Structure formats: C-alpha cells, structure tokens
Amino acid sequence: MRALVISGGGSKGAFAGGVAQYLIEELKRDYDLFLGTSTGSLLISHLALKKAEKIRQIYTSVNQDSIFSLRPFITKKRHGYHQISINHFNVFRNFIRGGKTFGESKNLRKLIAKTFSEEEFQTLQASKKDVVVTVSNISMNEVEYKSIKDFEYEEFCDWIWISCNYTPFMSLVQKNGCEYADGGLGSMVPVEEAIKRGATEVDVIVLKTEVTYFNRMPSKNVFSLITNLFSFMLDRIEYQNIKIGKFAAANKNSIINLYYTPTVLTTNSLIFDEKKMTQWWESGFAYAKNKSEELNQIEP
C-alpha cells in the first residue's frame, strides 16, 4: 500500500504541489492513501483525482483576499523581506463582534466549495483511494484524522477548511460541540498515521529545509513575535513527527521517501503571493525531477 503525505506550510503548499505533480504524472506513482495537514489537505483531493493541473491553477492564482474574509495583518516589504504588523481596525472589529481570533478565513471555505465539486467528492468517495485530512480538536486535546469515506460533501469540505485554519490568525471553528483548529498544531507531518493505516511505502513532502539555514528576522512588533513563536513551535512539532514516523516505519518495515524544500522559500507562510507561488510550484516539480534522476544514477 502506497501513501502520499503532505505537511502543513501555508503558501509553501505550492512547492508540494509541484513535487506531487512530478511523482504522479512523470513517475506514475499510484497512491492508495492521501494524507494531508493544513495546506496539504487542500492539495490531496485533487491529486487523488489526478487533477494536478487544476490545483496548480488554483494555487498560483490565490491571494490574501482568496483566504481571508477579515485579514488581521498588514504586510510591508523591507530589505527584501516581508514584515507584518497588526491591522488594528480589523482585529478590533472582529473582537467587537465576538470573534475569538485576530482574523477570519471564511473566504477559504468558499474557495474550497468553488474548486472541489460535489461530483468530484462522490467520485473519490466511490473509489478505492482514501483521502484523509488532519485536524486539531482543541476542546478534547486530541489530533483527529477525517477520512472522505466517513462524511457527506459539505461536512468533508468543513474538515478540509478546519485543517487549514492557522489559529489565532484564522478562524476557530465550533463543530460537534468542540473547538477545532489547524491540524498542524498537533500533527504537522502525519507519517505515523499513514503507517498505522497500513502504508508500506510513504512519499512524504515536508515544507521546510532538512537543515536550518537561517535565523528568523528580529521581531518588529507583538504580531511578528507571535508568528515567530508559532513558527518555532510548528518546526519542533514537524521534527518530532518525522522522528516518530521513521520509528514507526522501522517497526513495520515500511519505506519512507522524504522530499524537503532545498532552500528557504519564505519566512512567513501566511503571505500568499501569486508570483512567488507560481515559482515555487515550478521549483517543486524541478526538484522532484532532479532528485529522481540522482537516485537513478546511484542505483546499479
């Protein structure tokens, strides 16, 4: 049983899409299980349908307004880096009307429904392939994995959306009496879950470099400090997920193929830039091609 796992990473998901497109279309990898966290959950349904070109067009045309119904920050580019600061008006407005987060991402929920049709959902649900998204149940202090086989269309779209909600910058969702948020808060790279579900070979796309090449830019304000703290936390979760996944694979004699980003793509994955995401998709495709060619040269 072969699985494709795609980690969280916000706008960096464009790179993962390029890698996955090469694996599926050029190497003809046929996956039985697709498992994603956050941005990975947005990709996997279309990849399971073998519609990589469709999701490429979506990823390379989104911007901040495609994601946020209420954007909590302002971005400025200085010395080649994007710096973010709080959008006081939007944050205050959200708090006044009872919001629990800095911003809201209801536009992303609309985008999911617009780009992933009920017919496509039914096609996947009737197939032998399984598509699973990761969510964090804040109320129960648990990570949950939601399979397309277990839900109706609207509810599964909700789970995809919830998996991507990078709280407290995006929406906190109340569902089934519990509060849910981004799956990456608990399981950034769900390799272990793929092994538990019976995968014997897992291709894992990790949206960070294998080795840390940089120190983050100094925090300029409380908002950038919070984003830096969350990035640090998620990096540690990612490291632990991969370590545990490797251990689980060793115990089950499963094979893991890891695809890291070769360079630092961005220091803030909440910034959605159409031009950069187009470049990242292309670089992901090229990276997977180069890695495949290198492996072929090593093999006797």
What does this structure look like?
The chain is an alpha/beta fold and 300 residues long. The protein has helices spanning 13-26, 39-48, 52-59, 64-67, 88-96, 106-115, 118-126, 153-164, 191-196, 222-252, 274-298, and strands at residues 2-6, 33-37, 73-78, 81-86, 130-137, 142-147, 173-175, 178-182, 201-206, 255-260. Strands 1, 2, 5, 6, 7, 8, 9 and 10 form an eight-stranded mixed beta sheet that branches. Strands 3-4 form a two-stranded antiparallel sheet. The longest helix has 31 residues, at 222-252. The model has no long low-confidence stretch (mean pLDDT 89).
What's the SSE blueprint?
Blueprint: E1 2-6, H1 13-26, E2 33-37, H2 39-48, H3 52-59, H4 64-67, E3 73-78, E4 81-86, H5 88-96, H6 106-115, H7 118-126, E5 130-137, E6 142-147, H8 153-164, E7 173-175, E8 178-182, H9 191-196, E9 201-206, H10 222-252, E10 255-260, H11 274-298
Parallel strand pairs: 1-2, 1-9, 2-5, 9-10
Antiparallel strand pairs: 3-4, 5-6, 5-8, 7-8
Helix pairs in contact: 1-2, 1-3, 1-11, 2-8, 6-8
Give a concise summary.
With 300 residues, the chain is α/β, with parallel strands linked by helices. The protein is built from eleven helices and ten strands.
Give me some keywords for this one.
single chain; 300 residues; alpha/beta; eight-stranded mixed β-sheet; two-stranded antiparallel ribbon; 19% strand
Describe the global form.
Answer: globular
Structural class: alpha/beta
| Total helical segments | 11
Strands, total number = 10
- In angstroms, what separates the terminal alpha carbons? 25 Å
Largest sheet: 8 strands, mixed
Element-by-element helix/strand order: EHEHHHEEHHHEEHEEHEHEH
In terms of DSSP E residues, the strand content is 15-25%
Radius of gyration: 18 Å
- What proportion of the residues is helical, as a percent range? 40-55%
What is the average of the pLDDT values?
89
Low-confidence parts: none
